[in-house]
Design goal:
Structural class: alpha+beta
Number of strands: 10
Number of domains: 1
Largest sheet: 8 strands, antiparallel
Helix content: 25-40%
Mean pLDDT: 86
Low-confidence stretches: 16-22
Order of helices and strands: HEEHEEEEHHEEEEH
Shape: globular
Radius of gyration: 15 Å
Strand order of the largest sheet: 3-4-5-6-10-9-8-7
Distance between the termini: 21 Å
Number of helices: 5
Strand content: 35-45%
Length: about 170
C-alpha cells in the first residue's frame, strides 16, 4: 500500500514539469458513481464501504475501501482529505488482467487522452495523464510468480497539494 502511494507521489511530482504537454485534455474525474471531491457521506450513500487502517494515512485523512461491488475489480480505495475525496485507486483482479491484455486495457484511454507520459517501474509500465486539475495513472504491476494486475488511479491535484502542504515532510506539489 505504501509503495503504491509512493509511486503515485513520484508520478505526480514528475507532472510538475510535464503539465503543459497534457493541458489540451479534460480528464473524467470519476469511476462509476465515485467522483473526486465528493464527501464521505455521498460515497457511503451509494456504496458499502469499510474503513482501512494504514500507516500512510496522514492527519485529516480517511481511507475507505469498496470490495466486491464491481466486476473484474478487487478493490476500490478512496482517500479523503478533510472530508473530500482526493484519490481513487481501482485494482483489477488477476483474472481480469489474464483476460484483457495491457494494450487492450490502455488503448481506449490513449485514444481519449493522448499518449500520456509513460515509464517503466520495477513492477511494470506506468502511464500518466494530467490536465492541470486531475491526474490519471494506469499501472501494470507484476510480481515474481504472480500474474500482473492493473491499477487505475485518479487524483484531484488541488486537494493533493493542500494535503501535501499540511505535512511538512511531504511538501511536493503538482
Amino acid at each position: 500500500m505504501k509503495s503504491r502511494l509512493n509511486l503515485t507521489l513520484v508520478a505526480l511530482l514528475v507532472l510538475v514539469t510535464a503539465q503543459w504537454a497534457f493541458a489540451q485534455i479534460t480528464i473524467t474525474r470519476s469511476f462509476s458513481k465515485i467522483t473526486l471531491g465528493m464527501s464521505i457521506q455521498e460515497l457511503q450513500a451509494v456504496y458499502e464501504t469499510k474503513e482501512i487502517a494504514s500507516s500512510s494515512v496522514l492527519p485529516g485523512e480517511r481511507l475507505l475501501g469498496i470490495d466486491g461491488q464491481f466486476p473484474g475489480v478487487t478493490r476500490v480505495l478512496c482517500t479523503f482529505y478533510l472530508g473530500k475525496l482526493f484519490h481513487i485507486e481501482v485494482s483489477y483482479t488477476p483474472q481480469f488482467t489474464r483476460r484483457v491484455p495491457w494494450k487492450t486495457f490502455v488503448d481506449p484511454v490513449k485514444k481519449k487522452y493522448g499518449e500520456g507520459w509513460s515509464f517503466e517501474s520495477t513492477q511494470g509500465e506506468v502511464i500518466i495523464w494530467n490536465d492541470g486539475k486531475t491526474s490519471f495513472i494506469l499501472e501494470q504491476k507484476a510480481a515474481p510468480k504472480s500474474p500482473s494486475i492493473y491499477v487505475a488511479s485518479l487524483a484531484d491535484d488541488d486537494l493533493y497539494n493542500a494535503r501535501q502542504e499540511s505535512c511538512p515532510s511531504r511538501k511536493y506539489k503538482v
